[in-house]
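Archive maintenance. Older records in this collection stored only the sequence; we are now back-filling the structure field for every entry so that each record is complete. The fields below show one back-filled record exactly as it appears after the update. Entries are processed alphabetically, and FAD:protein FMN transferase is next in the queue.

ARCHIVE ENTRY
Title: FAD:protein FMN transferase
Organism field: Sphingobacterium litopenaei
Length field: 336
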Amino acid sequence: MKLFILISYVLMGYVASAAYPIVTIPYIIRGQAQGTTYEVKYFADEEIVTKEDIDSIFSVIDASMSLYKPNSLISSFNSGDNKKVKLDEHMYKVIQASLKYHKVTNGYFDVTVFPLLKLWGFGPDGFRFNPSKSQVDSVLQHIGRDKLVLSGKYLKKRNKNVAIDLNGIAQGYTVDVLSKYLVQKNITSFIVEVGGEIYCQGEKPSGETYKIEIQRPGNDTKGGYKISLKNKAITTSGSYEKYRVVDGKPISHHIDPKTGYPLTNNTLSATVIANKAMEADALDNYLMFLPPEEAISFVETLPHVEAYIIYYENNTLKELQSSGFNNYIYKVQNPL
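Back-filled structure field:
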């Protein structure tokens, strides 16, 4: 009798499941944070993560590393009165990564560049004037990895004029934090985007991978590449995104920490595919400093990293890509 009842329950459950199948649908969360927009899209049979959950994560990270919040931990460190701070979990991880990528990029990825960014009008205070050579030289004295000391969980600066900007990888780091949160919630298919920095996990319920279209510079009407991603991050840095015009010439927001002057070369954009968004975020900035051929040669030395470069040569738009980048191309529309 008990066996009959048990079998009946099982059969009834099976029939109910067949009659009312579990439907996996997309849940989309959008908002504004870190001076930009974000979007989180995941597939599930019920709502698991809410906008409040996502916004609370942004709030914690901003309290740590936002230059636009006067009471944030980074703002406290940058103030002239504070030469040392105890790092929280988020800022500690980003500082560790920043020091690592400073070495990997031969010093071009340098978080102490913040005073130069402000001098050239790319800081929170905006543009005021074009700096003179003497002003640039004066600020350069406070730029460099040697001006920082990481001792345990404490970050120290050599003098009060040293200040840091973690925006070069903070958005990529935020994408990684949000992605980890979704995985911890047992969500297996999602895409996270913060200010153009993206991570894709798993496949859609249809079995399709996530597709990302690479943005083309300026008003170019030619189509680009659609990139197929699974458990990968993709980020893009471009000189056409943030700039000012001085004497009829565009001034890039990429500041050379060695010269103190904005970057001037023929590279328009660098797109990087990597396992983590923070890694891709750091590397795409560095590739902007290198000649296109040298940038690709550098990427070829890195495991699990691919890159795509768009640049101008003789007034012609050209492209280069690493040897494995082709593996991610889903569809080419009107190639160069």
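Update note: The chain has a mean pLDDT of 87. The chain has nine helices and 16 strands.
Entry marked complete.
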